[in-house]
Write a structure and sequence with these properties.
The protein has 342 residues and is an alpha/beta fold. The protein has 2 domains: 203 residues, Isopropylmalate Dehydrogenase (3-Layer(aba) Sandwich), CATH 3.40.718.10; 120 residues, Isopropylmalate Dehydrogenase. It is 39% helix and 15% strand. The protein contains 13 helices and 12 strands. Helix 5 packs across helix 7 and helix 9 runs parallel beside helix 10. The longest helix has 17 residues. The chain starts with 7 loop residues before the first strand and ends in a 9-residue tail after the last helix.
Length: 342
Amino acid sequence: MRRSTLPLALTLGEPAGIGPDIAIAAWRSRAALALPPFYLIADPDHLARRAERLGVTVPLRSVTPEAAAAAFATALPVVDLELTIDAAPGRPDDSSAPAAIAAIRRAVADVMAGEASAIVTNPVAKNVLYKSGFAEPGHTEFLARLAAEATGTPLHPVMMLWSPELAVVPVTIHLPLAQVPGTLDRDLIVTTGRIVDRDLRERFGIARPRLAVAGLNPHAGEDGALGPEDLAVVKPAVDRLRADGIDARGPLPADTMFHAAARASYDAALAMYHDQALIPIKTLAFDHAVNVTLGLPFVRTSPDHGTAFDIAGTGRADPSSLIAAIRLAARLAARAPADAAA
């Protein structure tokens, strides 16, 4: 069975955040927006309480993944976490982290077993996870570990923020800025560039991806006058990517990479650190950018925003980014090769 004929697995995210709100809103928009079938991995009782809090009528149906597509038109399909969630909107509690983690584990198990076409994750609160003993830096690394455990193959996950206007990849992600120069090296840039090139070809259908690689320092180091890293690290990495047959150029001054004419010249920009990548895409596509994890054996997307505790349960959460993540996950999964469901 092709993965594209299977439903998407949607995780609850942080139960006290807006994940339940936007999942409900997305399902209620299913017909008007022609959304592909998905199921939500959650506690049905917690979800029913949130719907009541939001003042909306949402029929819920507890299902197995294989029954989700048939139920989708008339009810929000819910795969029961079999955990009790007590967290109220805006108030994470001891049930929050176990539920968020269990939903991710279940989604990975389902997609690896051929029961789901792709994973769409709602936002988690990292500080809540860390207090529970969660050892990974975030969603991306945890997904990669679970996939590596399932396949027996070490994986290098790459975070890409995608929108129709811009796709960006931070080579280093959640690091203090002071640690970036010491972490950044040629091999890390080359590995990241290779994964981006491969997934743009295989997942996004771009025959020859064009990669623009930002410099680390202002003006890409000004020929070494503003720091040695661009000549010593970034340029050799770009040279290696080009030697591999990848259409990469750089290091480029980051301050001139993101205007409209510059963006038209490449398919993805590789940035050297978190804010260098996320500031431009959140400026251009704040409400509809999608977080895509490259380098995994399955498709994973996520809204490009956080848990928004302050508006959880109020009905003010905008589901646009989740809807964009659902659509992109279905699009990318449709390009996956045929494989038998377990």
